[in-house]
Amino acid sequence: MSPRNSVKPSNSDEEESFYLNRGFHNIETLSYWLPNDEAEEDRLNEMHLTMKELFSGNVLPKATKVVDFTLGLKVLDLGCATGMWLLEMAIEYPNSDFHGIDISDFFPILKPENTHFYQMNVLNGLPFEDNTFDFVRLSMWLTGLRVEEWPIFLKEIFRVIKPEGYIQSIENDPSVSSI
Questions:
Q1: 135 phi/psi in degrees, rounded to 5
Q2: What average pLDDT does the segment 68-79 reach?
Q3: SS3 sequence of the chain
Q4: What span, in angstroms and rounded, lies between the C-alpha atoms of 59 and 53?
Q5: What CA–CA distance (Å, rounded) separates 105 from 108?
Q6: Helix 38-54, helix 84-92: angle, nearest 10
Q7: CA gap 76, 157 in Å, rounded
Q8: Separation of alpha carbons 122 and 156, rounded Å
Q9: Which of 62, 77, 133, 159 could make an SS bond with 137 (beta carbons 3.0 to 4.6 A apart)?
């Protein structure tokens, strides 16, 4: 058995465990169950590009009618993955300030000055003042949290978003059907 097929001994929550040659977070309290490795980084980038094509851009058409990113907004992307959405938005809207949070550190080294990344667990609280953000983006969180974690997650979102702020959430359809 290769070392990548076994679980590494861990004295730290930040180390990874490996199963079937895939790296995973080694944090017992973490709900996130998908891998944390290069193959996952590739999958996340492909998913971003697919969603962008499917929804005709980075921002849903309905949101573009009420949110003007050219005005210099503060934007938060929770579960930003590789940061591809943030990078594209930061380049397109240089007057706005973009912040991304993810449990994994897939963040790019080179980034626009108006882009900031934080590796952390959202459930431990967000490092921002109340009413900070004009726009909060969520994508594919439905299977990333346990039922009992949703109130904590939503409370933090509503704490940091401005009263007139906009939340864009894109999720999978969890229904099961048969043919």
A1: -145, 130
A2: 95
A3: CCHHHCCCCCCCCCCEEEECCEEEECCCCCCCCCCCCHHHHHHHHHHHHHHHHHCCCCCCHHHHCCCCHHHCCEEEEECCCCCHHHHHHHHHCCCCEEEEEECCCCCCCCCCCCEEEEECCHHHCCCCCCCCEEEEEEECCCCCCCHHHHHHHHHHHHHHEEEEEEEEEECCCCCCCCC
A4: 11
A5: 9
A6: 50
A7: 9
A8: 8
A9: 77
Per-residue confidence (pLDDT) for residue 8, from 0 to 100: 28
- pTM recorded for the entire structure: 0.73
Place of tokens 């994508």: 139
**Cα 157–chain centre separation:** 13
Does position 16 have pLDDT exceeding 70, yes or no?
no
At residue 60, the pLDDT reads 84
Of 11-20, 70-79, 81-90, 167-176, the range with the lowest mean pLDDT is 11-20
Q: In sequence order, what are the residues at sequence separation of 6 or more whose Cβ sits closer than 8 angstroms to the Cβ of residue 71?
A: 95, 96
